[in-house]
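Amino Acid Chain and Its Fold in Token Form
===========================================
Structure side: the spatial fold of the chain, written down as a series of whole-number tokens.
Position: the record begins directly beneath this header, with no further notes in between.
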Amino acid sequence: MVFDVIVVGAGVWGAASVEAYEKAGRSVIWIDDNDDEHPTAASADIARIIRAEYSDPAYRKLAEESLQSFKTQEPYSKYFHQTGWFLIQDEQQARHGSIPSGTEDVAVEEFRRKFSAANVDDNLFITRTENVGWVEANNLQQALNAEIRVKKRRGTVTDLIFDGRFCRGVRLGTEDILGEAVVLATGWRTNRLLASHNLAQVDYQVVGVPVLGIQLTDEQYMKYRDMPILCQPGRGEILPPTAQRIMRVNNPRSFHLNSSSAAPTSLSPTHICFKENWDFLGKYFPDLVDRPAVISKICWDALTDSQSFCILQVEGTNNVYYVGGGSFHSWKFRPVLPELIAARLGLKGDDNSEELWVLLTQEQSKKHADLIPTRRWE
């Protein structure tokens, strides 16, 4: 059988691509080397922040549309928790940062009353925004996948099969899967697959951020489960604990990975790359620094210059496409991704998204300056 499209990858972008093609009535085969979402995909996680707070107008418009779906549309609303967040910034960040200040000013003294053990400087600007929350990412991904009629074929794509510029399909071990088009939703690994055919590389760099998941006791969970998210740009983010009693601690200071280097994922929580995570946790929750870390990983993604979505035809091919987030923000846009993919890949005839697309991908519009790597992974 020759499928209309072969979708490779089972993260957020792979699932959204399958959803877009399925809705357009195309025959799809969906391939990933894992039974469920890829555990090392940038989108695989216990929890992700959902917000529309961006200084970039185009990004904010799309994020607001997506946030509304998280609030009101099943299955998104089932796994979304609107907790609000505290945004903690210095004066420079408050005036010129990539995250707009919140809607409600909060005095440092008031913040200290809520987080009595926190070590907060008097000169910080603290605002609160209610229109922010977090999503049970892996649980929602499983629920969305269950609604897709196409079921994944487990296997590792080892090669692309070309006849001149036309890609006839993909190779799974000794088996060839044939299709009229191939969509690579393979994140930062994409260029490694393209390199074997001397194809032009997609313009991104491989970037990783350290993430910890702290195991709380039942008592600690009850104490912190309804807390707002804490976000201090350039320092980190702390999310409320999940039902599994795990509190996620992010560090936005990223590492750059050479294209030929191995990308470590799970590491010991005592590895030096997590020191800033532990320090950040200790600044706001000193009572939790002795708790064990059950998640300690580097989350790798493909970072584009514009830090926005990447939906394009691979140069030198007639029918190979790459789709990806361009940053770590894809989960915030999951509800609108299928429509965006459909518009960009010609699956709908009334595409009027070109103006929005130009605004989304303009290079001078950095979405999250903190993610630009200043250190290399050695």
About this structure: The chain has two domains: 2-43+140-204+306-370, 82-132+206-303. The mean pLDDT is 90. The chain has ten helices and 23 strands.
